[in-house]
Amino acid sequence: MNLKKTFIGVFILFFSLNSYSQKLVEVWRTGPNMKTPESVYYDSDNQVIYVANINENPSEKDGNGFITQLNPDGTVKKMEWVSGLSAPKGMAVFEGKLYVSDIDELIEIAIDGAKITNRYPAPGAIFLNDVAACGNGTIFVSDSRTNKIHALKDDEFTVWKEGVELEGINGLYTEKGKLYIGSQKIQVADVKTKKLIELQDDCQGIDGLEKDNEGNFVFSNWPGRIFYLEDGQMTKLWDSTAEKINTADVFFAKELNLLLVPTFFDNQVVAYKIEK
């Protein structure tokens, strides 16, 4: 037996098992006072968490959806901060406006005044889902049923990219001129050229796609799973599929160092720290 090789092999195994030992530690939860929360977003400028409450049917234009404001500790600041939506889902903030997807239109809300200021219809859209704001002012919106990405730029809401490579698209994340796209895999598109590159496969259907303070991806699967991706190593942080507690469109609040998780039919928002 080569003891040197055995020792090296054991060391490598030990290192691989312990280098990626992330776990979720609960910090707070709202309790079941939400109404089918699909998405959350932390607005650091106003120190408030927005919650998109579908309020039952995620596909029906029933006009009963609303946005809740939470304080950073999870307490309710205002339950129905803005109402008059149908099935609000993904959200993003840009220059004092909150943008929210709502089935087949993008809703623009003036944060100062809590008022809907524009509704941008997306012809042919079926299930607008996640929203991400680019630094150049473009607001990207995914449509999970038509394999399209729509974009709002200079008050025009048009199809930005479409195709079979976007099948099952949902989670979006922007950073430094790049649009990261979550489906069964993670892809990245250059905002200028629209060229796609695959970064990670076998992601089991991404809902929320985020990065933490270390620049690593954390993402959710709607049925109840949360994963952490570091150096190509994918670690499952959470699995509540057996309990049928969903993990919808998560958001990583960098200023709070918290992962915010809406539980959909469980009607809660839960905040976790990612510990190593």
Concise structural overview:
The protein has 276 residues and is mainly beta.
Mean pLDDT: 93
Order of helices and strands: HEEEEEEEEEEEEEEEEEEEEEEEE
How much beta, percentage-wise?
over 45%
Query: Spatial order of the strands in the main sheet?
Result: 1-24-23-22
As a percent range, the share of helical residues equals under 10%
Number of helices: 1
Strand-pairing-aware structural class: mainly beta
What best-fitting shape do the alpha-carbon axes yield? globular
How far apart are the termini? 35 Å
- Strand elements, count: 24
Poorly predicted segments: 1-19
Major sheet summary line: 4 strands, antiparallel
Structure in words:
It is a single chain. With 276 residues, the chain is mainly β. Helix content is 6%, strand content 52%. The protein has 1 helix and 24 strands. Strands 1-24-23-22 form a 4-stranded antiparallel β-sheet, with no helix packed on it. A hairpin with a 5-residue loop joins strand 18 and strand 19. The longest helix has 16 residues. The N terminus is likely disordered.
